[in-house]
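Practice problem 4.
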């Protein structure tokens, strides 16, 4: 089916806006590709260093110019559940490469931090910047110019966007992303949230809270709610950077290992030494980016990707804006309900039909570009499948089921949960912001209430504990933008505001910081731009000012006369506490040079 006019219109707008920057980018990709295979440009001394640690057979193979060499970029560490499974992947990849007539080397490692560990802690102020560090670390690994393609082992919040930025920067190389998969289901996410709220109210002990959290986060793999990590996997698959059917297969299974081996072989099959050369910089284009945004809306994905997708697109010379994302949200219905947009987790989503079912429904409704390039060598229709393990231990693919296995979790286009993706831009005299409404009840889409202003999230939590917030209000948490302190997630505020909302209070959040990919039931205007430290109006709000957050009409205003606002001095706060400790002093340069949230909050600059 041809893509709908609304989707094509946004795609063409992005294409036209990006024309000059995209052409310049593709010229650089073609120039780099013309020098393949890249080992031929290395001196003998260079090359000897590059394969000194290899086995004799691999040295002989790499001495010539006809055997492909696969670079592995890994985010492995054994502290974090999502990344621990990657420990065994390089050995699988190397064996698969050998079977395919190639060689594989670990080109480098990248840091992988967990927002779940650092939520509400000083380390969270490094989180967003870690994305750009990951991109740079990847560049260091690939700078040796030894590789004909690369595979990227990453899964969580900032890791995949950072790897994607780097992969597109090395756009002449084919790129295949290999996930580790979600952990098996544990304590249901809604029960975990219930215990968190009880703890916030002092009704359960810390020991009981820790027990609930440990039953929820209990083994290897990503967290099972649909936050940024699992949104990443959806994006990589719907953009054609995964092999089909690979996103939500649990780690430690025979199918997971078979998919990993197959992905390595596929990466070697699409190098410049083959007949299927697929450089990622040409493969990913404006249509691929739009497909990613459509998938984000159809699944109720993470608000963090309103920042990350802009930065990823920019790496390919493509200019994506919040307005593009908002307009696509208006055109794309919600087809999945996975926590926090529902009670199910990603394992339930996979069992109900998963991405294969979802992609087919979106294609059949004309909401995705089918005629895109993918690492699989076919258009996006090839991704309307579910992967299974064959009798010979290899992957077999079956068509996605015609009917959803659970219509509480996943529905066909004809039965959409809501007509839009529920993610939109708010505009008004406070600037621009993003709001995600897919988990917010319609009667809470408009909140008008007095402001209670805080300069950090701890201030709000302290006020709640002191019993000062049992009323209708809009919490303004400012000086949380990228320039101020690295734009940490403020996910811990969800619990406190959720308690007050459950008591019948009309509450909302307005902040220049981020919320988690688990942004939930409380209306939250996030990523307010310009931020307070950059002269934004959010810095002039005072306690008692009436704010109006109107998700129905896309408005965000402080209801104070313009003349009065003009004469107000912006608020000030002591940011020196953010400058030292847990490595924050090393990121002063990042805070000084980072761009605005609506431009990807990147230190690499934006595409204009």
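Answer key:
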């Amino acid at each position: 089916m041809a893509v709908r006019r609304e989707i094509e219109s946004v795609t063409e707008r992005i294409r036209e806006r990006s024309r000059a920057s995209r052409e310049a980018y593709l010229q650089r990709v073609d120039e780099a590709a013309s020098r393949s295979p890249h080992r031929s440009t290395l001196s003998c001394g260079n090359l000897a260093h590059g394969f000194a640690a290899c086995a004799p057979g691999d040295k002989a193979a790499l001495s010539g110019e006809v055997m492909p060499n696969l670079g592995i970029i890994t985010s492995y560490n054994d502290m974090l559940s999502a990344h621990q499974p990657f420990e065994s992947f390089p050995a699988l990849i190397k064996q698969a490469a050998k079977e395919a007539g190639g060689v594989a080397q670990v080109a480098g490692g990248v840091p992988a931090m967990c927002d779940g560990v650092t939520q509400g802690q000083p380390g969270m102020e490094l989180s967003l910047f870690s994305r750009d560090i990951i991109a740079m670390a990847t560049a260091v690994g690939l700078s040796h110019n030894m590789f004909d393609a690369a595979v990227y082992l990453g899964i969580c919040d900032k890791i995949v966007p950072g790897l994607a930025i780097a992969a597109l920067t090395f756009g002449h190389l084919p790129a295949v992303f290999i996930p580790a998969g979600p952990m098996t289901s544990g304590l249901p996410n809604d029960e975990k949230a219930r215990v968190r709220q009880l703890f916030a109210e002092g009704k359960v002990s810390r020991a009981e809270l820790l027990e609930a959290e440990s039953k929820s986060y209990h083994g290897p793999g990503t967290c099972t709610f649909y936050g940024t990590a699992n949104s990443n996997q959806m994006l990589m698959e719907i953009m054609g950077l995964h092999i089909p059917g690979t996103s939500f297969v649990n780690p430690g299974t025979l199918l997971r290992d078979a998919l990993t081996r197959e992905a390595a072989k596929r990466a070697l099959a699409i190098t410049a030494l083959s007949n299927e050369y697929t450089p990622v910089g040409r493969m990913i284009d404006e249509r691929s980016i739009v497909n990613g945004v459509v998938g984000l809306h159809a699944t109720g994905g993470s608000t963090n990707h309103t920042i990350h997708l802009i930065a990823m697109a920019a790496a390919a010379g493509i200019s994506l804006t919040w307005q593009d994302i908002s307009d696509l949200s208006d055109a794309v219905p919600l087809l999945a309900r996975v926590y926090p947009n529902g009670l199910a987790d990603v394992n339930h989503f996979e069992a109900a039909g998963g991405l294969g079912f979802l992609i087919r429904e979106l294609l059949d409704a004309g909401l995705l570009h089918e005629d895109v390039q993918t690492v699989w060598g076919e258009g996006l229709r090839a991704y309307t499948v579910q992967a299974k393990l064959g009798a010979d231990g290899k992957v077999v693919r079956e068509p996605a089921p015609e009917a959803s296995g659970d219509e509480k979790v996943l529905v066909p286009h004809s039965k959409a949960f809501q007509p839009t993706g529920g993610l939109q831009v708010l505009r008004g005299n406070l600037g621009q912001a993003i709001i995600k409404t897919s988990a917010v009840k319609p009667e809470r889409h408009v909140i008008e209430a007095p402001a209670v202003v805080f300069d950090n999230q701890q201030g709000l939590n302290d006020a709640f504990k002191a019993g000062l917030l049992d009323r209708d209000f809009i919490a303004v948490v400012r000086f949380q933008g990228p320039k101020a302190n690295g734009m940490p997630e403020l996910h811990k505020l969800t619990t406190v505001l959720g308690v007050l909302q459950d008591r019948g209070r009309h509450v909302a959040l307005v902040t220049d910081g981020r919320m988690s990919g688990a942004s939930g039931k409380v209306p939250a205007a996030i990523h307010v731009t310009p931020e307070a430290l950059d002269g934004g109006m959010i810095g002039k709000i005072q306690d008692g000012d009436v704010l109006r957050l109107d998700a129905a009409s896309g408005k965000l205003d402080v209801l104070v006369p313009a003349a009065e606002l003009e004469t107000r001095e912006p608020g000030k706060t002591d940011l020196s506490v953010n400058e030292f400790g847990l490595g924050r002093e090393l990121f002063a340069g990042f805070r000084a040079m980072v761009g605005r949230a609506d431009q990807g909050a990147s230190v690499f600059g934006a595409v204009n």
